[in-house]
Specification:
The complex is a heterodimer of chains A (311) and B (393).
Chain A: H1 5-8, H2 27-36, E1 43-48, H3 52-57, E2 68-71, H4 77-93, E3 101-108, H5 109-114, H6 117-126, E4 131-136, H7 176-181, E5 187-191, H8 198-209, E6 214-219, H9 223-226, H10 233-242, E7 249-252, E8 255-258, H11 268-272, H12 285-308
Parallel strand pairs in A: 1-2, 1-3, 3-4, 4-6, 5-6
Antiparallel strand pairs in A: 5-7, 7-8
Helix pairs in contact in A: 2-8, 4-6
Chain B: E1 3-7, H1 9-20, E2 24-26, H2 35-45, E3 52-54, H3 59-72, E4 76-80, H4 82-97, E5 103-108, H5 122-126, E6 133-137, H6 140-155, E7 163-168, E8 177-181, H7 184-191, E9 208-209, H8 218-247, E10 254-257, E11 264-269, H9 272-285, E12 290-295, E13 297-299, H10 303-309, E14 315-320, H11 331-343, E15 349-354, H12 363-379, E16 386-389
Helix pairs in contact in B: 1-2, 1-6, 3-4, 6-8, 9-12, 10-11
Classes of the chains: A alpha/beta (311), B alpha/beta (393).
């Protein structure tokens, strides 16, 4: 059946309202869209790395998760969920569990790009039948907006502050999706909850129902860290994608496919402008040079991706 | 009929694990515990167990995967040593507070640095307050027996705590000794199948594990965790009784060796007990009333029982195979001394740190300790409370 947003939202939510995530946060939108792709008759074991999502959705004695949920620590969502999946496989053999259970781990960029990278790599390499989702908000938001290896160059964070000598984070963003592609997994995709959410929903469905390990890297803007007006969430995501800062693509058994090509490639500056974390780039001639630097790197990565996708 | 065999400590533990046939074993190799997952993965490869073996990329992930597996409802086991245990540290506390009865064989090795692969107890002693039950083993037989009992102890509904079974690296792990194995079906019946009340894979009643737990509830949860540890004392003895019925071997909180009329005694853990027992026998032949206590259960600490057990002595030495670096002796000494304040206040007590980094512990060394105790018993005076044995000063 073709995807229909209206129909898909009629399914009961697997992450209920009443959790404590901020208004205008991308993460719960990402989670709800992904969980909608789980068949209603299937059970899910959801794991989360320590982070905003975890502390805001499971505060004793409450949980916003309709499925079984596990959090153990920050750097180990991959390993923790891989253990649960191993128990499932063993208990299936002995007839202790019946029906289909899906295993989905969520981590922010801190828990995924940085402290949890080893655990993620191990879990994926071992081939567990699970999906790891990174909701990428480009900094350690839960501890108060510190830079991560996912933070874009020149972004102002509390540990890469824009100062008079150093203009924000000195390094470009790590390309984690490519790191995961290099694991030669059955399914890797980069997505964002955009327009009618079809791109994310389809990729989630493929990831969840592809046998073996799958990785989704999903852009999830943070209004506090990025400093945009909360109602702008969806506009910011669209600009990230249309500027080719965050291209949407998937790699199925090693085959690259661009899943969205902007009709008009928007300048990177248009995406950065509404975000307070880049405000200093728009105040001086030096800033203009930095914008050029960013545009050049985005173009380089985009062209490279187009080649990989055979476009 | 028991099966007579000759096995190293590591192989004995791997055989126990095969007989237990857990759902998941997640492990990472580290000397001297490496053989445990090696032997076990062969059992997996040969279809002798139904276990999912998860060859993780680190010990941190080993314990994390164990937590995921045990939370999911699977019986879960692993093994490690020294730095591997140290890398698990964060997760040890989370396993205990999540009340997950994982069984971990700790093959005791000196904790870096400097790096050293040989035996002392600095690894498991550092984890003594992590909320895990700790059982210590003199030889391969005890390692085998304790691993089997550990399953029943940890999984008991009054306990629900993880259990470490600790035995000495190389001395026990690699030495091949005679052993009496139990028949597979006997072990299978003894451990039974695992039926936790709530688990992730129980789809009718999904649960949430590891919530954020702030001021209103955290303390109550820690209090309940402490109660599990207190409750484990009775369970440990009950399981030992049942085990004795099946296997004929007796276990308690500690073993008392020739303590009935002893005047001088030492407290030791693990393989040193074997060496010390021969010294006790020699001294007894010479008319010295020497005795020995070998602690099996260090967590929960048998406070009253141990305090009373040493109350009849004229002098006691507590042997620590790890330093507390506290300028007040080793960890075993401090706990024993605390118990003695209530139950054996007048018994002079001294501490020896010994055998660090695998420094050989000979019968002569232990004999020297008893000689020192003889003098203390005679004079009632302790010259030095904190001592090092067998080190160049």
């Amino acid at each position: 059946m073709a995807y229909n947003l209206k129909e898909s939202t009629k399914k009961p939510d697997r992450l209920t309202g009443g959790h404590r995530m901020c208004a205008g946060c991308g993460a719960p939108v990402v989670v709800r869209t992904i969980l909608r792709a789980v068949k209603e008759e299937d059970h899910a074991v959801v794991g989360a790395a320590t982070g905003c999502l975890e502390v805001s959705t499971c505060l004793y004695p409450f949980t916003a998760w309709k499925d079984s949920f596990i959090h153990s620590a920050f750097e180990n969502a991959g390993a923790t969920v891989s253990g649960a999946e191993a128990a499932y496989t063993a208990m299936k053999k002995t007839g202790k569990v019946e029906g289909d259970t899906k295993f989905i781990a969520f981590g922010g960029d801190g828990g995924t790009y940085d402290i949890g990278l080893q655990s993620l790599s191990g879990a994926m390499e071992r081939g567990h039948d699970m999906v790891y989702v990174c909701y990428d908000n480009e900094a350690y938001m839960n501890t108060g907006i510190q830079r991560s290896s996912s933070t874009p160059k020149y972004a102002d964070t509390t540990t890469s502050p824009a100062g008079t000598v150093i203009p924000g984070k000195p390094q470009f963003k790590k390309d984690l999706t490519e790191v995961m592609v290099a694991h030669h997994l059955p399914y890797v995709a980069q997505s964002a909850p955009m327009t009618n959410f079809k791109d994310l929903y389809d990729k989630a469905e493929k990831a969840i129902y592809t046998k073996g390990p799958a990785f989704l890297n999903v852009l999830a803007p943070c209004p506090r860290g990025w400093r945009y007006d909360t109602p702008m969430l969806m506009d910011i995501i669209k600009l990230a994608v249309d500027s080719c800062v965050w291209p949407l693509y998937e790699v199925v058994e090693g085959e690259y496919k661009l899943t969205y090509r902007p009709k008009i490639k928007v300048p990177v500056a248009d995406y950065l402008k509404p975000q307070g974390r880049f405000r200093h780039l728009f105040k001086s001639d030096v800033g203009a040079e930095m914008l050029k630097d960013l545009q050049k790197e985005v173009d380089r990565r985009w062209e490279n991706l187009l080649k990989l996708c055979g476009e | 009929m028991a099966i007579r065999d000759k096995l190293s400590g590591n192989e004995a533990v791997a055989v126990a694990m095969r007989q237990i046939d857990p759902d998941v074993v997640a492990a990472f190799p580290i000397t001297p515990s490496t053989e445990v997952p090696q032997y076990f993965s062969q059992f997996v490869a040969d279809g002798k167990v139904h276990t999912e073996f998860v060859p993780v990329e680190s010990e941190h992930s080993a314990m994390s995967a164990c937590i995921g597996s045990e939370s999911a409802g699977g019986r879960t086991m692993t093994a490690t040593s020294a730095n591997g245990l140290a890398l698990m540290w964060e997760m040890l506390y989370i396993a205990a507070s999540s009340r997950l009865p994982i069984v971990l064989s700790v093959v005791n090795r000196a904790l870096s640095g400097p790096i050293n692969i040989h035996n002392d107890h600095s690894d498991s002693m550092g984890a003594r307050d992590s909320g895990w039950i700790q059982l210590y083993c003199e030889d391969n037989q005890e390692a085998y027996d304790n691993v089997i009992q550990a399953i029943r102890i940890g999984e008991h509904p009054d306990v629900n705590l993880p259990v470490m079974v600790c035995f000495d690296g190389f001395i026990t792990s690699h030495s091949v000794e005679n052993i009496e194995l139990l028949e597979d079906d006997k072990v299978k019946n003894f451990v039974g199948s695992y039926h936790p009340k709530e688990y992730l894979l129980k789809r009718e009643t999904p649960i949430a594990v590891g919530p954020l737990d702030l001021q209103p509830h955290y303390f109550e949860h820690k209090r309940s965790q402490a109660e599990g540890m207190t409750n484990s004392k009775k369970v440990i003895l009950d399981v030992a009784k049942e085990f004795q019925k099946m296997a004929g071997r007796e276990y308690g909180f500690f073993e008392e060796y020739r303590m009935d009329d002893a005047e001088v005694g030492i407290i030791v853990l693990n393989s040193t007990a074997g060496t010390a027992k021969t010294v006790v026998d020699d001294l007894r032949d010479k008319g010295v009333k020497a005795g020995l206590i070998k602690i099996r259960v260090f967590r929960p600490f048998p406070f009253e029982e141990l305090g009373k057990a040493v109350s009849g002595l004229k002098a006691l030495a507590v042997m620590d195979k790890s330093d507390g670096f506290a300028a007040m002796g080793g960890p075993v000494f401090n706990d024993v001394r605390s118990a003695m304040f209530d139950y054996a206040k007048d018994v002079p007590c001294i501490n020896y740190i010994y055998g660090l980094g695998g420094r050989d512990v000979r019968a002569d060394d232990i004999a020297k300790v008893y000689a020192d105790l003889g003098k203390i018993a005679e004079t009632g005076k302790v010259k030095s409370t904190f001592n090092y044995l067998g080190v160049r000063e």
